[in-house]
Amino acid sequence: MLACFDIGASAIKGAAFHSAEDRPLARREATPLTDLDRFAAALAAATADMERAEDTAARAVAISIAGVVDARTGIMTCANIPAIHGRTLAGELSARLERPVFIANDADCFALAEASQGAGRGHDVVFGVILGSGVGGGLVINRRIVSGPGGYGGEWGHGPVFGCVPALRGRLEAAGLPVFDCGCGQIGCVDTVGGARGLERLHRLVGGAALASHEITAGWLAGEVKASEAIDLYLDLLSGPLAMMVNTVGASVLPVGGGLSACRPLVAALDERLRARILWRSDAPLLVPAELSPEPGLIGAAMLGLTHLSEMRDV
């Protein structure tokens, strides 16, 4: 049995997996944000509960988390959970839980789950796209996560895409599109316009009211003028950087998750705009809704853990 967790700033979700095909009911509790002892104790208690319920010991713990793990040093970057930020979390938890602990970024786990059992089945190169509050992504090649230096592989939402060239920035601002500051410390990142908060920002920019993202997409589907202007701008801003990503990594499918993916017409419209901008021409959709809702993080954690355990047996 494998004890799997999907951890964010608001909640720890956990479930016991015996195989990657399992779909167990997840238990949920609040994430201890500032105390490592409480954080580790929560995982230990949840693992013990799973062992009692399954009547078997957990061979390992696998975690999908809203943070980045440097594969070289093992150091965790997770500003939203200060208790674990800057720590070699897998090693520390392994010592406390007395079993192997495997950790990966939640977007990477999402991509791994979709590549293995979801919309990316049968594809060698899968790029998972997250359109949530912000923008995220994960790259999987031959069913293995490509984490990159520092653990930042797949992060297409960051980098000064719209503000790196002064002349381009001037043109954008002259056209009425400011280059927004990003929480990562740079300017003009896709993340500033590509998630739900970005869409809301664009809607206000074109003169629309301060609406929630789901209200904007509903207005767009109803033919409301300002919502349609905001969505058209949104599609243009996202499709270019996404096309560069496809051209670079050669992904043949892009499962999309996150809150905005619930609007299927938006996914289809972004896919159409994307396919018009890539070098490869495909009549079939590339950007497709993810299939493993509601728990792709847990499924990805299970895939991660089972893969590592298999490799440990082969050594």
UniProtKB/TrEMBL annotation:
EC class (word): transferase
Keyword Thylakoid: no
Listed transmembrane segments: none
Entry-linked SUPFAM superfamilies: Actin-like ATPase domain
PROSITE patterns attached to this UniProt entry: ROK (PS01125)
UniProt keyword annotations, A-Z: ATP-binding, Carbohydrate metabolism, Kinase, Metal-binding, Nucleotide-binding, Transferase, Zinc
InterPro entries referenced in this protein's UniProt entry, alphabetically: ATPase_NBD, ROK, ROK_cs
Molecular function via GO: ATP binding; metal ion binding; N-acetylglucosamine kinase activity
Pfam families on file: ROK
Catalytic activity, reaction form: N-acetyl-D-glucosamine + ATP = N-acetyl-D-glucosamine 6-phosphate + ADP + H(+)
Keyword match Nucleotide-binding: yes
EC number: 2.7.1.59
Xref: PANTHER family: N-ACETYL-D-GLUCOSAMINE KINASE (PTHR18964:SF162), ROK (REPRESSOR, ORF, KINASE) FAMILY (PTHR18964)
Name the UniProt record assigns to this protein: N-acetylglucosamine kinase
Organism: Pannonibacter tanglangensis
